[in-house]
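Two records follow; treat each independently.
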Amino acid sequence: MNEDKINIEESILHIVKELLKEWESQFYVINYYADIPLISRSNIDSSNYFSEIEINYYNKSGDFGTFTSIIIFMQNQQVLKIDDAYKFITEKIRECYDELSL
């Protein structure tokens, strides 16, 4: 079961990285970039297992701009399905882009 969770998380992380690559030029125009996202996990054997991918955005000077959090597991239950990830993550990235474009 733990291996299944890790595979799900890694699949969603792959989607995040691909979408960030697609959006990279648009963020560049407004002088922002995203850091390399990682998966944050609580104790994988816990009944309260939690995992998320956080994306932080910085301007070209290195100053923090905004962030978004993509929760995958909460209280040991999967809350983001792989089939829904592309659309959901695209919307999260778009929200950050819109916020930074103001």
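The next record belongs to a different protein.
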Amino acid sequence: MQSIDPNPDWKADPKSKTKTADEAQYAAIKAKGKIEVAFVTAQENVRNSKGMYRMTVEAPTPVSLPTFSLEDRSTEDLKVMYFSIGGKADRASRSHGPI
């Protein structure tokens, strides 16, 4: 969902023949306030509104990444992690120590 709200910077075009109708339409949009619509609908509304609407971007919520240390893992978990990244259990790969 995307939120759109009335554009406070909107001004009616003084040369437009529909200036009073546009001002009345903007007053109705302003009275309605912020609305939530689908993203594609929000794009269409902004495009077709002659600048009366604008899309508002919400601040992203921070994501906390899980932290872990290798010392807290069991030997079995470490073996699974090693083999999942392509580690080999053959004799040649054992030169750096037992697994």
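Discussion point: Residues 2-56 form one domain. How would you locate this feature using only the token line?
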